[in-house]
TrEMBL record:
Protein name stated in the entry: Peptidase M48 Ste24p
Phylogenetic classification of the source organism: Bacteria, Pseudomonadati, Pseudomonadota, Alphaproteobacteria, Hyphomicrobiales
UniProt superkingdom: Bacteria
Region (Disordered): 448-475
GO biological process per UniProt: proteolysis involved in protein catabolic process
The keyword Metal-binding is assigned to this record: yes
Length: 475
């Protein structure tokens, strides 16, 4: 059940650049900062989904362990963006566009991309790039001083205003161009290092680098018309031909180059792609990619999702029931049935399949949260305590879900526990970045709890929380 959430706070490259320079580390050169900050404010949303997140964890777990990052809690964050891209913006998160998952036809292709991004994290490339940028700022100051000195010398020599402007412009532009080229050259070296690390991780886990090579070769074909006209130093990656040649040599030297993805993993990858297409594409697009003549379980999955999304809930439920009959061990079919019924206003009917999905996934917090919401929306007083139990456990494991906190607040309110209702509402506001409202609700909750009690202490922490400066307008 891909669920949109607020965009994370990170700097991203421009949309056109992101499409042209795939697999980029999200390191922004100074000239791009203003654009990137604006995009970060508007930014695309992130997507949460238990099935997809579980698959991506299985893809990254052996890679991260090999890279020495197994204990670092590195997570993969899914971005709702159709272009093929993946990047890192810090040492804890790998961002992957939905387009990368949809366009990768084999697990190996996306695993290679994830291995490349892991190479950036393990290599400390982002920290070193920040040092490079700090150095560039110092160099820029020197450049401006040189320009000022050149203009002063020109004035002393009797040069006119136009000539002074030319001298100043040349003095400023030449060092800044040198700075830019130096930074880009540095970044190209880091990209090549990440490629080498990726192949090393894949070798260590007995996986092929062929998928990674196939992905890069595809982009080489897409960029041929660009590379003939643009200075290679204006690109933040090595030129495709050079990069692919080096990668191809490494990949083909591996004893695992011809290794294939396990059939079960390929099947999960196909289901993930079908799910994303079913949720994100128009019905005609889904029908074209998965025609009725396609009887594969992935095709049925995509069509069932599309049917419910575009109003045919009864038809969708019938298709989901057929999927369950075909594979009753798949918990995500029960989750989908519950979601379709819940969003159609049939909360009571959604409870049973969601309970089944929670049990089959060992209490996955996103599914548990949906079950809690269904129990609240059903309006049955006998469900209230169950809703509180499910939502408390969901928020303990996933404390950033505003909707789960909101539903928990409603459940507490129905039970007459106004102190915890206010506290949960405050947590919901904080999860949405509404710090001022959150503090007001927390202050009200603090008044309701006995002083010094666990609830009072939690509310007091929220009241005294200092939001980040970027959220100062909401204080």
């Amino acid at each position: 059940m891909p669920m949109p959430s607020s965009s994370p706070s990170f700097l991203s490259v421009g949309r056109a650049l992101a499409r042209g320079l795939c697999l980029a580390a999200a390191v922004v050169l100074p000239i791009q900062v203003a654009l990137a900050q604006e995009q970060a404010r508007k930014g695309p949303s992130t997507i949460r989904d238990t099935e997809i997140e579980a698959l991506l964890k299985d893809y990254t777990r052996p890679i991260l362990k090999t890279a020495g990052l197994g204990q670092q809690n590195v997570e993969v964050v899914l971005i709702s963006e159709r272009s093929f891209n993946a990047f890192v913006a810090d040492g804890k998160r790998i961002f992957v566009n939905t387009g990368a998952l949809v366009d990768s036809t084999t697990p190996n292709q996306i695993i290679g991309v994830l291995a490349h991004e892991t190479g950036h994290i393990a290599g400390g490339h982002l920290a070193r790039m920040r040092e490079q940028l700090a150095g560039a700022q110092t160099m820029a100051i020197v450049a401006m001083l040189l320009a000022a000195g050149g203009m002063a010398a020109g004035a002393a020599g009797g040069m006119n205003g136009r000539d002074l402007g030319n001298v100043g412009g040349a003095a400023l532009s030449a060092p800044q161009e040198l700075i830019r080229r130096s930074l880009l050259n540095y970044q190209r070296g880091e990209e090549a290092a990440a490629d080498r690390s990726a192949v090393k991780y894949l070798d260590a886990t007995h996986q092929s680098a062929k998928g990674m090579l196939e992905t890069f070769q595809r982009f080489q074909n897409d960029q041929l018309f660009i590379s003939q006209r643009v200075d290679p130093y204006t690109l933040s990656h090595p030129m495709a031909r050079e990069r692919i040649a080096a990668l191809e040599q490494l990949a083909k030297a591996s004893p695992y180059y011809e290794a294939k993805d396990p059939p079960a993993l390929q099947a999960r990858h196909d289901m993930m792609r079908a799910k994303l297409i079913g949720f994100m594409e128009r019905p005609e697009t889904v029908a074209r990619r998965y025609p009725a003549s396609d009887t594969s379980i992935a095709a049925q999955y995509a069509r069932a999702i599309s049917a419910y999304r575009f109003g045919n809930v009864n038809g969708s439920v019938a298709q989901i029931d057929a999927l369950i009959a075909r594979d009753p061990s798949n918990p995500y079919f029960y989750e989908l049935k519950g979601q379709a019924l819940l969003e159609a206003g049939r909360a009571t009917e959604s409870v049973a399949p969601l309970r089944k999905a929670v049990a089959m996934t060992n209490g996955a917090p996103l599914i548990r949260s949906m079950l809690g919401q269904a129990l609240v929306q059903a309006g049955n007083p006998s469900y209230t305590q169950e809703a509180i139990r499910e939502l408390v456990q969901a928020t303990q494991r996933d404390p950033n879900s505003a909707s789960a906190w909101r539903s928990l607040s409603l459940a507490y309110g129905r039970s007459g526990d106004l102190a915890n209702a206010d506290l949960a509402a405050a947590q919901s506001s904080f999860a949405e970045g509404e710090f001022k409202l959150g503090r007001e609700l927390a202050a009200r909750a603090r008044q309701r709890f006995p002083q010094g009690s666990p609830g009072w202490l939690q509310a007091d922490d929220l009241v005294n929380f200092k939001p980040p400066k970027s959220a100062a307008n909401q204080q």
